[in-house]
Amino acid sequence: MPSITHFEIYKPAEPCSYTGEKLREIMDKVISETLTPDGKELNLKGYCVGPNGMTIICRDERVAKVRRFNCGGNRIGNEGVKLLAESELFSKVNWLELGGNDIGPEGLRALVNSKTLKKVKSLNLYRNCIKDEGAIIFANENQLEKVEDLDLAQNEIGDDGILALSQSKKLPELVSIALDNNFSSAEGKEEAKLGPNFKKLQSLNL
Q1: How many Å apart are CA 105 and CA 128, to the nearest integer?
Q2: Are 48 and 74 contacting, i.e. CB atoms less than 8 angstroms apart?
Q3: For residues 150 and 177, is the Cβ–Cβ distance under 8 A?
Q4: Which residues are CB-contacts of 30 (< 8 A; sequence separation ≥ 6)?
């Protein structure tokens, strides 16, 4: 059972299920309330906008200046993260929070191959379901080469996934990675610590 803090990140009215004009009205209001006056920060944490909400947000010109985007706890799924990865309006984002969004390997692939999120330096994907498959995709296909700080905690990643990440040459700027609360073994963690991509880090949390 989720802890009380996980429940609290969701607002009482969850627009996930809305469609059409009602959805547009709610998303317009959500953006108005959560976008900072300078347009550089959008904090949607826990609004549960879902993939439907992302279809509206990713087309709203007001987000074109956003540098910091907190989209944690929104259940956007693979469909929603694909919309984000393809939206040119988010091309200035350098800090991206996607924790608690039901993102699997397919969504992860769309994210790391995004042509518009190239400026992202801090990427938080905690509490999704990336698994070994997604971690290996990340290790082999990542195009977000400016990423310095990466959080993949609570993603059901086992030894194959963390070893692939520890050997990856696709994260040249990586300084810090969090991989705690995953499914890797003690032996796998020890081996991963020796990988060239992890040996160089300032912070390694396994």
Answers
A1: 10
A2: yes
A3: yes
A4: 15, 44, 47, 49, 53
Number of helices and strands in the chain (H, E): 9, 7
| pLDDT of 83 | 98
Please measure the distance between the N-terminal and C-terminal CA atoms of the chain and give it in whole angstroms: 24
pTM of the model: 0.92
As a whole number, the mean pLDDT across the chain is 92
Residue-wise pLDDT for 63-99, tens only, equals 999 999 999 999 999 999 999 999 999 999 999 999 9
Tokens 């330096």: give the residue: 121
Residues 124-141: pLDDT tens digits? 999 999 999 999 999 999
CB under 8 Å to 3, separation ≥6 — which residues? none
How distant is the alpha carbon of residue 47 from its chain centre? 15
List the Cα angle 157/148/89 in 5-degree steps.
95
Q: Identify the CATH class of 4-205.
A: alpha beta
Report in angstroms the alpha-carbon separations of 72 from 12, 93, 102, 139, 144. Answer: 16, 15, 10, 23, 19
Residue with tokens 């991963």: 192
Do 88 and 119 touch, CB atoms closer than 8 A? no
For the chain, domain boundaries: 4-205
